[in-house]
């Protein structure tokens, strides 16, 4: 995805609620009912699509695990999945 740069603001309401501007929702890929994650680092806050954030965290946790398990190529993983499905079908 190409990096999109712009500035947008929103008003904080009485209960601390903020409407995420349409342009920002589009960039985040979020719609009504979706969740966002707030990542706070000092006085900077990033708003991230929660599904994307969860995937990023999972990828960080799994980094290097495939190689340790002997998965060197995509074919290795596809074969492992196929074998798992065959064993479940029995």
Describe this structure in words.
The chain has 90 residues and is an alpha+beta fold. The protein contains 4 helices and 2 strands. The radius of gyration is 20 Å and the shape is elongated.
List keywords for this structure.
single chain; 90 residues; alpha+beta; two-stranded antiparallel ribbon; 4 helices; 13% strand
Please summarize the sheet with the most strands.
Answer: 2 strands, antiparallel
List the uncertain runs.
none
Helix-strand category: alpha+beta
- Arrangement of strands in the largest sheet: 1-2
In one word, what is the shape?
elongated
Strand content: 5-15%
- By DSSP, the count of extended strands is 2
Q: Helical residue percent?
A: 40-55%
The H-and-E topology, N to C, reads as HEEHHH
Radius of gyration: 20 Å
Number of helices: 4
What do the pLDDT scores average to?
Answer: 90
Cα separation of the termini: 42 Å
How would you briefly describe this protein structure?
The protein is built from 4 helices and 2 strands, in the order H-E-E-H-H-H.
